[in-house]
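Q: Could you write out the predicted structure for this multi-component system? I'm mainly interested in how the pieces pack against one another.
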Amino acid sequence: MNERCLARILVVLPMYGGSLPVGRYCAKALAGLGHLVETFEAPDFYGAFTAIQNLRVTAERMDYLEHAFLQTVSQALLAKVETFEPDMVLAMAQAPLTRQALKRLRRDGVATAMWFVEDHQVFTYWQAFAPYYDFFAVIQKEPFVSRLHGLGVENVLYLPMAADPDIHRPLDLTPAERRLYGSDLSFVGAGYPNRRMAFRELFEFDLKIWGSDWDGEVVLAPRIQFGGRRVSTEESVKVFGATTINLNLHSGLDPAALVPAGDFVNPRTFELAMCGAFQLVSGRELLPELFAPDEMAVFTDMPGLKEQAAHYLARPDERRAMAGRARTRALSDHTYAARMRSLLDFVADKRPGFGKTARREAGMTDLPEGLRGELSGLLGELSLPGDAGFADVVTAVRSRQGQLTELETALLFLDEWRKQYGGR
Amino acid sequence: MKRVLVVQLARLGDLIQTKRLLLSVALPDPGGAIPEVHLLTDASLVSLARRLFPGVVCHGLCAHGPAAPGGADDPAALSRVFANRTVFAELSGLGFTRVYLLNHSGLARAVSTLFPPETVRGHFQINGQPQKDPWPALAFRFAAMRREAGINLADFWAAFAPRRVPPGVVNPPAAPKGGGLGVVLAGREARRSLPPEVMAPLAAVAASRHAAKRLVLLGLASQASAAREFIRRLPPAAGKNVADLVGKTDMAGLMREIAALDELFTPDTGAMHLAAHLGTPVTAFFLSSAWCHETGPYGEGHTVWQAVTPCAPCLESAPCAQGMACLTPFADPAMIRLAAGSGKAVLPAGLVGFRTETDALGVVCRPFAGEDSTEPARTAFRAFVAEHLGIGRGGAASAQALGQRLYLETDWMLDRFSRFGGNPQEMETT
């Protein structure tokens, strides 16, 4: 972007699923870039959805109720848009934005963007929704990009996954934590068929498996930690830090292809790199442009995996050096902040005037000088740039939770006073 | 010490109508402790509030609008409003256990953010979301049935409190004080007032009836020309006794004058509520959007002449499309005879005379002249509200029909009570 902009962005989270944490990372990164961000908390609606699914009613009724439910959620989202007046609505895959709502947003001139952090060949519903988004960011290149163009989606952006350096970082673990979370080899993730088959070949190693969806796995059962429950992000980071070699085997549905071929690079690759944790990652077509060969050890088949595992277990200095380089690269190129900057640059290039709407042009120049001075301290606290407008400050204050300070209350009061008596 | 704050940011009349709530929240709690009651109001009304409500700690905020049009963008005005933060800082440090926000306005909701969410009642904002409690939410539905509804604003606000003082102790019973007849020419809304040529003959005969030696004109400086017109319209005998104090009294002076009167002739104004507060008999003229069952004088023994034309009460914000039909009956010669105390005069159509009394719910206007076709509906309404507030036993079919009309699915099904610890019974004014 040539000119710095302060955009209002509404991040629409999905109700559940893998895109959910990514959406939260995006919201945090956008706020960190100085934009005014709110999230639409679709997960809060998930309880109502599961209640509908447990009704035991006819299929027709269920179908009707699910549509009605989605309409309600979509209406809630549109109400949020109406109040927050975002410059852009950023949705993650499976975000509850109906086609009708997307049409409405397009008609109202609100830019809509989707970051589709899924495999387009596995999750094929994008075909029905992509044309309704103004911007469509993807983690794969060809043939996906051409297919999108073929559907009439003009603004397609390749935007690989990333990691959050505040979350994914090296930790000082206690000896007890090292014992609990540590092992020679570990894997954190879901029990896809290829992983189940692959890890059965690693019995010679001290391997721990963390994560859910390993139900019915008898052979690997002794290696599965915490009874196969889901591990939190915080626990994952501890595992990454305590493990000598983190296995990063991309998922595949074909149990015959233990190390699946594929193009996109999974989020775990970036997270491990950001943690400064050593990883053995399965090869991907798009990996070389993201990490250099001396930043990450790559395997393409099971013999290669075992060979490299043995090699690096015996060479702590090589591991440390490689992991250090990977972390440097991740910090430099692969943060969510960098991704969001790329996305906004792309949007601003395609949409002149993005993030420079009238309410900000008004700025705070019409406020008394003393008052502006008072506000400058608050701007930093609210992560807003110095040229943020009064309306932006008020929006940021309004989104604060719970009891407010007298300064914040005074701002809200002043805003209401201007609205009541100034016809704003 | 337990401290309670009442936030009333509206005008003079509303401030006075907050009295029953202020008295109610000052009642000892079940443990016998007497709360310290605070009031937050516009700074211009603080000194009056202190006179009105001795024992209440009053705080002033720059809340009212600028005097001049466009003044909301005046840097000096904005600075004054922003300077409210010092008041907010003071209030924030007082640790109120309960805060009542009475105004359905963004200003009141902004003030609410200063306090822990669990302590606020009425109209508030939590985590950026404007909300209101179940009682004001229900009362908003009354607005769609104003002709049949009938709860005085003072009683509505009093019902924000868990327990209420009896309505009879709020204001002294109306009794003449010997100081003559007072006349208030107009309130803030000219449409709700009688023009001088209608008011003058009514006031003249009333003064004569009282054998009043003084006829005191009260009002704002902006009403000086109306006062001159009023005097010009008086019979010469009455004109000699006029004391024209329009624009010449401050709040304290206004209070002193009204306290000494035999009677106050007035539209629905702050001065009317002041008279009721002081026990000075009121004869009020309600027309246009004014509806005595909502904002009539509080206490026993006041008189209201209420326009009941089919269009009344109308919306204050909407222009009149009826040629001010509600004003016509006040100008009828029969009205002058009634004001003179004639028992034989027939009340003009479109007008009902009410006297104020009190019942378990609060103040109530009872018809003594004219035909009040809405009284049965109002009686049912008051029974419904009384049962809702836990005052009456209910059970009447007409009140139950109101329940079916006024209670919504959202009241019944959605969580309104977790803020109150999850138990509806512990909530004030369910």
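A: Regarding packing and overall arrangement: Residues 311 and 322 of chain B are 8 Å apart (CA to CA).
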